[in-house]
Each structure stands twice: as C-alpha cells, then as structure tokens.
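Cross-check.
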Amino acid sequence: MWQLDKALERDRINAQRPPDCWCLGSGESKSETAVVADGRDKGKSYYTGRQLFCPCPEGQEAKVKYAAEVAEQQADDIQAKWDGSEIPSRFYAFTLATSPLKKLAKKLMPDKLTGGQSIFLWGAFGTGKTGLAVGYARAWLEKSKGRNSILFRTLPNMLSELRATYNPHPEKMETEQNLLDQYQHTGLLILDDIGAEQISTKGVAWVQDRLYQIIGNRHDEMMPMIFTSNMALDELEKRLGERLTWRILEMCGKENILEVKGPNLRDS
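Predicted model, tokenized:
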C-alpha cells in the first residue's frame, strides 16, 4: 500500500512540475552512461564521469553549484601540483601572459603548439628560456585541470641527486631507481640547463646512460618534457651522443625546437 501512496505522491508533484522535469524539484543529478559500440565489451554500458542535471530551475541551480564546486576543486588541485613541482622561487610566478618574449610566449600556448608536446628551448644565457619553460608548464597544468604532476630539475642537480644515492645519508635512504622512476613517470618533466653539467671523461658513459633511461623511457611512453639549453641540439649531440639527441628531436618535432634570442634579461 505504501508503494501506491508513494507513486500517487510522485504523480501529484510531477503534475505541478515543468513538462520536462524528471527530478521532481529535488535538483538531484544522475551519472551519464554510454554503451560500448565495439570491442570485447560491445553492448555494455559504462559511466562517462559526467553528471546530468534536470532542465528545471532547481536542476539548473544545482548544476551551477556543482560547476562552482568542481572549479574550486580543480583550482586546489592545480595549486597543489604547482607547489609540489619544485620550481625555484625566482621563477615560481612566471606565466606566458607576463613573459617579455611575447611572440614565443604566444607560440607556446598549449592550444597552439604544433608537433609533439615536448619543447626544446635553446639560446644564450639569460635570454628567458627558463621563464618560458615555467610559463608553458603553468599553462599545461591549467589545461590538464590539475590532473597531472610537474617536476623541475636542472640537469646538474638531477645528476647530483643520482650520485648521492651511492653514499646515502642514514636519514634519507633514497635509491637511484626511486629517483629514476620519479623522473620517468612525472606528468611533465622540465629539464633545465642541459649542457651546463660538468662531465669528466670517465663519467660521460654514466651520464649518457642515466639520461637515456629517463629520456628514452619518456620518449617511448610519449610523455612530455621541456628542455632548456645554452647549446643548439647539434652541439649537444657532440656532448651527449646521437642516440639521446635523436630522441629529443623525435619528442619535440622540428617545429618545437625553438631558439630564444634577445638581450640578457637579467641585466635589465
């Protein structure tokens, strides 16, 4: 009997609602589903991750509130990922919009980038390469809505971190493999100052091998990187070898090998 009463009450409320209302004034949403069209699970439904809201006033009010909550969560996620990126304080607030290199900054907007997602920025000391790299990283993070992580490393510091694992501090038992995993799998890796590292004759093979493990893995998994260097790619080839520089070229594409020209911005 109670089921009949419930159905009658629903019909009474529904009669007073707009014709296309299905939430009965509750503003409650429902998860969107879709049916797999092909593949092994053909014909099965799955959740798309989107929420659907009733077209009635209560439903649309709930939709606005939900969008505000999602935007707030995304802003928190972006800020958390940015704070964890280890970008140096000097560059922390850099954006493409505030870059003095307007032409290059416009080209580096994620929506306008051609070729691969990776970028190689090269040019003389102080021309603004790192600032552009950080600005692009910020735009990339915002475009991903905070879903992916960023890690900033200068190449000299990266190599120092790896070497330090051979004589670990008792309170910090970091392993070389843990660091390599971090460099290989972070969402976007900024590798700054390639070519600034000091390499002894005996150490060349070790540096090339570690860089190949990092860059080669990211190349194979199609994971983006931003490289900055005072050297052109053909100059780096003499230092790091053809195997590495060829992968950098493949990751970036010729369109994203960009020379950064201009005066030393640090003198201004």
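The CA atoms of residues 125 and 230 lie 6 Å apart. The mean pLDDT is 86. Passed to J.P. for a second look.
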